[in-house]
Amino acid sequence: MSQSAPPPQPQSPSRPEAQPAPAVQQVPQPADGKPFAQQAPVAVPQPPAPSRGNVALGLAAAVVAAVAAAALYGMIIGFTEHEIGWAAVGVGFVIGLAAGRLGGRNPVLAVAAALLALGSVYLGQLVGEAMIGADQLDLGFSEVFFQHFGVVQDAWKDAADPLTFLFFAIAGWAAFSGARKAAG
Fold first, then answer.
1. CA distances from 3 to 24, 26, 27, 113 (A)
2. Torsion sign (Cα): 131, 134, 135, 140
3. Cα torsion at 138, 142, 148, 150 (round to 10°)?
4. What is the DSSP letter of 31?
5. Can you say how many angstroms the Cα of residue 79 is from the centroid of all Cα atoms in its chain?
6. N or C: which end of the chain has fewer CB within 10 A?
7. Are 69 and 123 in contact (CB under 8 A)?
8. CA 134 remoteness from chain centre
9. Which residues touch 23 (CB under 8 Å, ≥6 apart)?
10. pLDDT tens for each residue of 42-62
């Protein structure tokens, strides 16, 4: 079904408009009037699927989620001046979800997510204490958190009660179960 093209003609320098028009190939149309009906389907390349089962990627995602969740949890505590249980559940679940979705079914990820959730809740509670202290002392958050970190930890110890530790347990459980469910 190929048609050979005529050989190129030498071009005259004095008359460039004297070139012959290129040959146009006529494509026969199907009898039913549907020009694309007889063409073979074209395969469209699919984007690569996200990597699953990569433990290092799951751990990295869980660490990033833990830092972000700690900051958000700390801001919630700082603005409300209360620890909120559903926020601790959210911290744990987000960390577990990140670990399980990207890391897969490896049981190490569920345990690592639970440990990261404990650290994230603790860091979030420290951020909240620093926000409250900065507001009461009329200082900047970064000054209180970074320059007086020992004072922030002492304030956390003084304010800790059984409910505080219940939030640790809730976040750890949510992270562990969230990682297991997200990997499934």
1. 10, 10, 11, 66
2. negative
3. 120
4. T
5. 26
6. N
7. no
8. 31
9. 3, 5, 6
10. 666 766 655 567 899 999 999
Whose tokens are 């209180």? That residue is 144
Tokens of 133: 């202290």
Query: Per-residue pLDDT averaged across 88-116, rounded?
Result: 95
- State the pLDDT at residue 20: 61
Q: In whole numbers, what is the pLDDT of the chain averaged over residues?
A: 84
